[in-house]
Amino acid sequence: MRIIVFGATGMVGQGVLEACLREEEVSAVLVVGRTPTGCSHSKLRELHHEDFTDFSAVEDQLAGYDACFYCLGTSAVGMSEADYRVVSLDFPLAAARALLAAAPDAVFCYVTGAGTDSTGKTRMMWARVKGETENALLELSPRAYMFRPAFIAPLPGTKAKTKSYVLLYRVVTPLYPLLRRLIPRYVTTSLQLGQAMLRAARHGSRRRVLETADINELAAARPTP
């Protein structure tokens, strides 16, 4: 498989990228981003791109890939809805449209989050916007999958970019083993998330919207020959 990863320098994306690089079935990984990953690997190529609302200049470089794992995101804390919609709705839709124009049969895996509301009825801005994004992506392609993890334990040494996440994970990460025992249905790792995406890309998934328990189940599934 040949995989594209967006958001590979973030806390989630670093684990997803690592899962791709470890997977024997993955022959090539293209990271699209504004900043370099700092990672060196024979499978890895990085494509620098600034305007995430328009990929027309690099669309031809997305051809020949089997799947895209979209891990780019930001906290809604302190953001207006207009600004949050640009990052959480406009960016992923632009990426998905460019990918499908270049590789119509590609799988698109989007990291959203537990609590996302696709009905549009919630008062929580981030959940409503994420839900709108999910609906648009699901309509855009029958090979789109939405991943809604709750608590994600990062790879050791991973640093989050968003200050609120830095503080949260500084407190919660040491509790991961306990949380794993007490509430396993709500806890996963960034590596497991990547493994689940790889399974969805290779074999599909019976669910197109996956909660944490679904993610862990898919990550643990034995590959089908």
TrEMBL record:
Chief place of localization: membrane
Domain NAD-dependent epimerase/dehydratase: 3-83
Classification of source organism: Bacteria, Bacillati, Actinomycetota, Actinomycetes, Kitasatosporales
A cellular-component GO term for this protein: membrane
Classification via Pfam families: Epimerase (PF01370)
Top-rank taxon, per record: Bacteria
Protein name per Swiss-Prot or TrEMBL: NAD-dependent epimerase/dehydratase domain-containing protein
Compartment(s): Membrane
